[in-house]
């Protein structure tokens, strides 16, 4: 099993550079559809978890998607559902990265993730539409990958987590270009007591713009903070594992019990043994051993 976290972080950084370099290439369009689907699934999940209903999930093929949902009756449910797209994507990406870096239950995690994609696609997307094919295609691919072994599952988790995390941050740039069309703009209209359909003016009200940029800034900070938290946690676990391994190595050495006379301490020191701690260093770790007494 792959347990070398520095190697995984190197793969993580390489993936970021590769995705950034080829982000506008045609081949990445399938990956973009996948991460947009994750974004929409997060909206749908928030609606269901807050007691609402989900009517359907659709992808438009232009890095855009739509979740048709009826939020629960309490006022805050709409805020949670709309916010779940970016925040939820960051959580999913961070969790997949954490699972990949830790290497624990990688196959099970990947298989469950694939089954989730297939289930959501069958239940909430229309047969023959882009969202349906995207969910089924990626779900089956992830499911099969999880059955191939632990090492490839770890690599797949790092790849998926990197892609989702990167896109969840990259997509935040839409706030600067077309705020009224984004989730932040929709929430700003709603909090202002307006809706995009009710506006006849071509220009967006200043109050909506101000509130939208405020919401977008908050989501951006939360998304980046979530991903940073998971990455930092993975690094901390790596250092803890190294310290724990070193401690176990010392604890495995044989310790000499009891008090020693000065002669015994001198005798042990000549043979590379610390008389105070009683740690017996294995022979293969000793250098320049003194000759034994005849």
UniProtKB/TrEMBL annotation:
Instruction: Please report the organism this UniProt entry assigns to the protein.
Output: Leptospira ognonensis
- Can you name this protein? M50 family peptidase
Q: Where are the transmembrane segments?
A: 6-23, 35-58, 78-97, 109-124, 130-149, 206-231
Which Pfam family is an annotated match for this chain, by its short name?
Peptidase_M50B
Query: Which keywords are on file for this protein?
Result: Membrane, Transmembrane, Transmembrane helix
- What is the top-level taxon of the source organism? Bacteria
Question: Which InterPro entries would you find in this protein's record?
Answer: Peptidase_M50B-like
């Amino acid at each position: 099993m792959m347990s070398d976290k520095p190697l995984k972080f190197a793969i993580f950084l390489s993936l970021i550079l590769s995705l950034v370099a080829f982000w506008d290439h045609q081949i990445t369009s399938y990956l973009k559809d996948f991460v947009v689907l994750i974004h929409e699934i997060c909206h749908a999940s928030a609606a269901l978890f807050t007691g609402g209903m989900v009517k359907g999930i659709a992808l438009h093929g232009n890095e855009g998607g739509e979740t048709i949902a009826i939020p629960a009756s309490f006022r805050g449910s709409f805020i949670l559902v709309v916010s779940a797209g970016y925040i939820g994507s960051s959580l999913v990406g961070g969790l997949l990265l954490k699972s990949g870096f830790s290497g624990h239950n990688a196959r099970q995690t990947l298989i469950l993730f694939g089954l989730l994609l297939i289930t959501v696609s069958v239940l909430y997307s229309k047969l023959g539409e882009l969202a349906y094919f995207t969910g089924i295609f990626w779900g089956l691919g992830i499911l099969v990958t999880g059955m191939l072994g632990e090492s490839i599952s770890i690599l797949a988790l790092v790849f998926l987590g990197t892609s989702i995390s990167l896109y969840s941050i990259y997509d935040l740039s839409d706030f600067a270009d077309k705020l009224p069309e984004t989730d932040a703009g929709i929430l700003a209209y709603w909090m202002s007591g307006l809706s995009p359909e009710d506006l006849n003016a071509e220009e967006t009200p200043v109050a909506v713009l101000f509130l939208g940029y405020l919401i977008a800034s908050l989501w951006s900070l939360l998304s980046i903070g979530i991903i940073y938290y998971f990455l930092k946690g993975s690094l901390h676990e790596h250092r803890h594992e190294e310290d724990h391994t070193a401690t176990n190595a010392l604890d495995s050495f044989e310790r000499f019990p009891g008090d020693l006379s000065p002669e015994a301490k001198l005798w042990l020191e000549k043979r590379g043994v610390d008389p105070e701690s009683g740690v017996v260093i294995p022979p293969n770790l000793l250098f320049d051993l003194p000759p034994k007494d005849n």
